[in-house]
Design goal:
alpha+beta; Muramoyl-pentapeptide Carboxypeptidase, domain 2; two-stranded antiparallel sheet
């Protein structure tokens, strides 16, 4: 599990099984699940698009450094992973949106049709909404209703059925509020 206590190893690793999903790479299994998720949403009348998938170490470094410059390190650490600690670097995380761009990468995304569909159905496809509201103590990050993490159907369904909100709790890890 990648979080603020557990970096990738090596810190700049890249999985070899990436495929293109709407212009963003994801690992093969996550991509298959994402396509099924999007198809199910579409069948329900909900449009969902990919905003961001895999990020390289250098891309994550640029993003993080931009947030540090804009907001300072403390705020940057609450809204963005440091390079080497990002789930996006695994190819298993995807930020979603809707074609209108409404509430893109904002908490209000939760109230959009795409956000509501993700909250209600992501687990059926092996995804969890990784950074839940009120769980910053456990994850170290602010609420991100658009950030999905592929964990596989068994884990996602088990977390949903047990009403467990974070991977830290599910796997019995201590909270990861800081580096």
């Amino acid at each position: 599990m990648i979080n603020k206590r557990n970096p990738l190893s090596p810190i700049d690793s890249v999985s070899p099984d990436m495929v293109n999903v709407g212009g963003s790479p994801l690992r093969y299994q996550a991509a298959l699940a994402f396509w099924q998720f999007v198809d199910a949403a579409k069948a329900s009348g909900v449009a969902i698009n990919i905003v961001s998938g895999f990020r390289s170490y250098s891309s994550q470094a640029s993003l993080y450094e931009g947030y540090v410059a804009m907001y300072g390190q403390e705020r940057a650490d609450a809204i963005s992973a440091r390079p080497g600690y990002s789930e996006h670097q695994t190819g298993l995380a995807v930020d979603i949106g809707n074609p209108s761009g409404a509430c893109a990468l904002e908490e209000c995304f939760a109230s959009t049709a795409a956000g509501q569909f993700a909250a209600a159905h992501a687990h059926e496809f092996g995804f969890v909404v990784r950074y839940q509201a009120g769980m910053s103590y456990w994850t170290g990050y602010t609420y991100e209703p658009w950030h999905l993490r592929y964990v596989g159907k068994d884990v996602a369904l088990d977390m949903h059925n047990q009403r467990i909100s974070t991977l830290e709790q599910y796997y019995g890890y201590p909270p990861a509020p800081g580096y």
